[in-house]
């Protein structure tokens, strides 16, 4: 495999982060009809990371392909990804199941494995989690399926000329930071501190319309739509009760004892 990078960047269409989610009337899922959607914020960071690696120039980035798995409207986030700098995109169209919801992380990872192998990618950069289900599983599952090294929650991605074929990833851990050195091919999941994603400019949005977007189904990758998990019920959290004031420390202690906290 060439030392040049061929980067796969999965992106997900989610309810916009500025929208307050609400439970549907049947209490089976979050209401998505008529709600603004956009690209998962962690995936915006992943696209930005791939484009910045290209702009850095070393190592050479030969290809950046964005991929989304989901309904027809996922083409919107793929166009955004290409406007930000991805060379092309792939859309695996899957409609959510009324009974079980969207595709589960394991099935997503199985599709990504097939794509990474077919496209001869040597790096996959993806958000550490999506803000809808917050699973934080797909990157780790993909690394396991491919047998590649992984670095999760990256806050810095660095290549050194004297370490050809290797990548250094800095990640925040409890009490400090940790730097990992891994050999390509590599899975990297991104955290919020990695970068500030660029806005897609109007000229780049127009250029993105001419970039290739290929259409696929799960059958193209030999992956079934079977869901192994079922959501029984979704409920709003109970409303928070207002706090109370106490006059002094003795009053606070008495109140805590009354509540059974001490």
Account of the 3D structure:
By secondary structure, the chain is of the alpha/beta class. It has a single domain, classed as Rossmann fold, CATH 3.40.50.620. Helix content is 26%, strand content 26%. The strands form two sheets. Strands 9-8-7-10-6-1-4-5-11 form a nine-stranded mixed β-sheet, sandwiched between helices. The longest helix is centred in the first third of the chain and has 16 residues. The N and C termini lie far apart (62 Å). The mean pLDDT is 89. Its cofactor is AMP; FAD.
Strands ordered across the widest β-sheet? 9-8-7-10-6-1-4-5-11
Low-confidence stretches: none
Question: Helix count, per DSSP?
Answer: 6
CATH architectural type: 3-Layer(aba) Sandwich
Q: CATH class, please?
A: Alpha Beta
Task: Indicate the structural class.
Answer: alpha/beta
Distance between the termini: 62 Å
Can you tell me the number of structural domains? 1
The tally of beta strands, per DSSP, is 11
What is the beta-strand fraction? 25-35%
Might you state the CATH topology name?
Rossmann fold
Q: Strand count, sense and closure of the main sheet?
A: 9 strands, mixed
Series of secondary-structure elements, N-terminal to C-terminal: EEEHEHEHEHEEEEHEH
> Kindly state the mean pLDDT as a whole number?
89
Radius of gyration: 22 Å
Estimate percent helicity: 25-40%
CATH homologous superfamily annotation = HUPs
> What sort of overall outline do the alpha carbons produce when their principal axes are compared?
globular
